[in-house]
Amino acid sequence: MIIQEEIEELVRLKGATLFHREGQELEFKEQFNLAALADYFRDFAAFSNNRGGFLVHGVKDSPRTLTGMSEKSVDQFEKLDPEKVTGYLLEIFSAEIRWEAALVEVGGVNLGVFRIYESAAKPVIAKKDEGKDQSIKNGEIYYRYGGRTQKIQSAELENIINKRIEQNNQQWLDLMSKIGQAGPQNAAILDTERALIEKGDSRVLVLDEVLASKLKFVKEGQFVEKGGAATLKLVGDVVPIDRVEVVRRVKENLTKLYPLSAMELIPEVQKMYPPAKQSDVWKVIAETDLKNNADYSAYNFRSKKQEDTFNETGVLPKAMPSIYNDKAVSFIAKVIRDGGI
């Protein structure tokens, strides 16, 4: 959902210019043009491969001022057909890109806003060439770095692949854990494509007792219609259950997961890549917004009150330090070595 107050914050003024700069989750454009859709789609994919973000039309560059879109741009923006755009994106990219658009009025001017969500199936890969100058090329993966969109570098791609492997492994572990809790003799497989729950050669339907009490079960071949009656066609056995086992993960101590302070990062990075300088490490952290990326870092709250306030308001206390994990060391060393920053 695109929220008015959120957009107003993104284009908040400090004097005559905008307070916020372009970053990993924010891109400004002066006008909207249907002929430039391929360029926008490139940004869509980049945001989707990172943490999502906003593409806001109606902001002039150098200096960043709030000018709003012209009548022509507004007219073209309103002609966007969401169904067609989604179809184009599916043709161009390997995975679904979730997005939405809205015309938002701020300070008496119209802004064309796209919100792009983080993909659940990274990496999103281009499947074909697109655009006048082939701004999108077959086989390329786009990623959001600081305030720019570019081809993904090895460190970020490796992180995406590793995270996908970890998610897959965790799903298997969760499944095996639940089978172990229930006992193999009580376990069944839910086939979502065929809409069946199977155990060996049998087909079994498992229902909660509350739901089961509200349904009328009719054996196959014995159906008699009664107006308004809730019914299920029974083609197998019905087994009621009285409880669902909930698996809870206990959050580990942050210092075990993220053992390094910002200063301790430097010698660790230099062990992996000796030419690295302190300024290089700071630059990578700033340009990639690493301190706000849970894959590599966590906020080191000084008290529970600080953490509770952040969870309620979403506003970090000033000068909040972050702590980092070993993945951050490898990531920073690779970026510096590859000359990506």
UniProtKB/TrEMBL annotation:
Protein name: ATP-binding protein
Stretches assigned to the Schlafen AlbA-2 domain: 22-152
Pfam (any one): SLFN_AlbA_2
Native organism: Halopseudomonas laoshanensis
Presence of the UniProt keyword NAD in the record: no
Keywords for this protein: ATP-binding, Nucleotide-binding
Lineage: Bacteria, Pseudomonadati, Pseudomonadota, Gammaproteobacteria, Pseudomonadales
GO molecular function, one term: ATP binding
